[in-house]
Amino acid sequence: LKYHEPAESRLPSQPHLLYVFKSAAHLSTLPLHTRSCWLFGREKMVVDAPIEHPSCSKQHAVLQFRYVMKKDEWGAKKGGVGLYLLDLDSANGTWLNGERVEGRRYVEVRHKDVINFGSSEREYVVLVPPKEGNESKKMAQ
């Protein structure tokens, strides 16, 4: 395996969904929140989410949930679980919102971000449904 989960690997507290599109057609949906790590690539015996496009590597990229400490604007530390994309030094690259992801570097993935692997036309869109409490607050405003 080209990838092993880090010590900060965690399951998220809220649902994360990955919608797969080709052109405008919705092909499938992956419930990302059901596991801490998703390996993408052509090697069907090893990966969690197969990609059949010839421009994709056998083990192409990873979506990993990680617990990370961050500082807010006042310098206070705050920890939380976030979704990160990692390209496994693939031959033809991984793209986040149209920009190539540097190999072996975690890049944070947010709501409505679009991921592409190699030169495949498929688009992978991350959606994080709002928390139930936040939705009722928005409706009250």
Helix and strand sequence: EEEEEEEEEEEH
Task: Report the span from N to C terminus.
Answer: 50 Å
Helix content: under 10%
Q: What is the radius of gyration computed over CA atoms, rounded to a whole number of angstroms?
A: 16 Å
Derived from helix and strand composition plus strand pairing, the structural class reads: mainly beta
Which assembly state applies to the chains in this document?
Answer: single chain
Quickly count the helices: 1
Name the shape in a single word. globular
**Uncertain runs with pLDDT below 50, 5 residues or more?**
135-141
Strand content: 35-45%
Describe the largest sheet: 6 strands, antiparallel
Question: Order of strands across the biggest sheet?
Answer: 2-1-11-10-7-8
| Average pLDDT metric | 93
The total count of strands amounts to: 11
Secondary structure topology:
Blueprint: E1 17-22, E2 25-31, E3 37-41, E4 49-50, E5 61-71, E6 77-87, E7 94-96, E8 99-100, E9 107-109, E10 114-117, E11 122-127, H1 132-140
Parallel strand pairs: 3-4
Antiparallel strand pairs: 1-2, 1-11, 3-5, 5-6, 6-9, 7-8, 7-10, 10-11
What does this structure look like?
With 141 residues, the protein is mostly beta strands. It has one helix at residues 132-140; strands at residues 17-22, 25-31, 37-41, 49-50, 61-71, 77-87, 94-96, 99-100, 107-109, 114-117, 122-127. It is built from one helix and eleven strands.
